[in-house]
Amino acid sequence: MDQQLLVDIIVQIIIIGAVASGLMAAFGALTVVERKVLGRFTMRYGPNRVGKFGTLQIVADGLKMFFKEEVIPKHVDRLVYLMAPGVALVPALLAAGVIPIASQPLVLPFQVFGSTITIYPWMADINVGILYILAVGSLGTYGVVLGGWSSNNKYSLLGGLRTSAQMLSYELPMGVALLSVLLIVGSMRMTDIVNFQASYLGGYLWLIFLQPIAFLIFYICGLAEAGRSPFDLPETENELIAGFATEYGGMKFGLFFAAEYIHMIVLSFIISTVFLGGWLGPFAQQIPVLGIVYLLIKVAFIVFTMIWVRVSIPRVRFDKLMKFCWKFLLPLSIANAAVTALILAILFF
User: Fold this and answer.
1) Does residue 101 contact residue 122 with C-beta atoms inside 8 Å?
2) pTM over the 0.70 mark
3) Could you tell me if 224 and 329 are in contact, meaning their C-beta atoms sit under 8 angstroms apart?
4) Phi/psi at 278 (5° precision)
5) What pLDDT, in 10s, does the model give residues 87-140?
6) Complete DSSP assignment for 275-297
7) Which of 66, 72, 59 is nearest to 29 (CA)?
8) Cα–Cα nearest to 163, from 323, 320, 318
9) How far apart are the first and last CA of the chain?
10) Mean pLDDT, range 209-216, rounded to an integer
11) Element at 145 (helix H, strand E)
């Protein structure tokens, strides 16, 4: 094997490990941040006992989950029951593989064993990035459905059935909303989408201004895909105890918990990249580190809006949830794609 290729593979493996570790750390921090923000919205303090301002609460929660007794009920399908949390978590991590976080690769000013070290701001810059995200993101549904089915509990099964119906339904308008973006950009590569936004008005013609309806549809469908309120019907505690996670505890429950929050974080990265210009901002092309800062600010804003939605909008009824998708979001997304295609045909053909 070529020595340069070997060094590049090792560097990519390190980057993959760093991204996965970063997402898990972000999940832990976000659980505390959300509880603090929810507390402020509802005139409470939130966690404030463990560490300064409650900053070590995630350490306490992690230790609690880690040391809890691992109970596996006798009536469950053991193999599928144990696999389901991992099946839910891994696709959430994999979806981050095509999200670019800076404008250009960083070449380090030294060599290892005579080979140049290049750090790419993405794990894979493939030409079907959008398709990859939709395909991998949908795999997380299987973990939730298998967890509900393998538990052999009626509440868990109902949660799993709700998940399959909800997530499969909302994937349709989500995909059609992205189709409107692809018609404008002409590429499914994530870096091409950002570069398109960088080509006009000095990098400030973000796609949210060209496709506000597609942005709203994608954002709403993203909440449903991640199981976030007001679309958290698969685990609604006042109806199904904990839904698909009723029979899970300890670290197995923690993995389901992590999957939801990592889906939330990755979704924010996707929205920021596709609709908000990704790393674009003042002097981001000249100073790549600034691009990372801009992207993280945009991601933090999207995450904050998701928390805001949770505390502001009540949970919807399941039949109205499905009706909203099939009778409103899907026709609206199709109409938006048709109008976009018509306008592009008039302008360029």
Assistant:
1) yes
2) yes
3) no
4) 60, -120
5) 888 888 888 888 888 777 766 666 666 677 777 777 778 888 898 998 888 887
6) HS-TT-STTTTT-HHHHHHHHHH
7) 59
8) 318
9) 49
10) 93
11) helix 129-150
Percent of the chain with pLDDT over 70: 93
Q: How many CB atoms are located within 10 Å of the residue 131 CB?
A: 15
The answer to whether the beta carbons of residues 338 and 330 sit under 8 Å apart is no
Written as one string, the DSSP assignment of 178-194 is: HHHHHHHH----HHHHH
Q: What is the per-residue burial (b if ≥16 Cβ within 10 Å, else e) of 214-236?
A: bbbbbbbbbbbbbbbbbbbbbbb
Type of residue at 305: T
The residues that bridge with 118 in the sheet, in sequence order, are 107
**97 close to 131: Cβ distance less than 8 angstroms:** no
Query: Residues 194, 279: contact at Cβ < 8 Å?
Result: yes
Q: For residues 194 and 29, give the distance between their C-alpha atoms in angstroms, rounded to a whole number.
A: 28
d(CA 229, CA 240): 15
* Element at 322 (helix H, strand E): helix 318-324
The DSSP line for 4-51 is: HHHHHHHHHHHHHHHHHHHHHHHHHHHHHHHHHHHHHHTT---S-SSS
For residue 100, give both structure tokens. Answer: 């670019």
Q: For 169-184, what is the mean pLDDT?
A: 91
Backbone angles phi, psi at 106, to 5 degrees: -105, 120
Give the model's confidence band at 269: pLDDT under 50 very low, under 70 low, under 90 confident, else very high. Answer: very high
Closest by CA to 207, choosing from 174, 182, 170, is 182
User: How far is it, in rounded angstroms, from Cα 228 to Cα 270?
Assistant: 16
The percent of the chain in helix, strand and coil, each rounded to the nearest 5, is: 70, 5, 25
Instruction: Let me know: does 298 contact 272? Beta carbons within 8 Å.
Output: yes
Residues whose CB falls within 8 Å of the CB of residue 194, separated by 6 or more in sequence, listed in order: 100, 103, 273, 277, 278, 279, 280
Structure tokens at 302: 């999207």
Residue 342's alpha-carbon distances to 187, 250, 335, 339, in angstroms, are: 18, 53, 10, 5
Tokens encoding 117:
């070290």
pLDDT of 3 higher than 90:
no
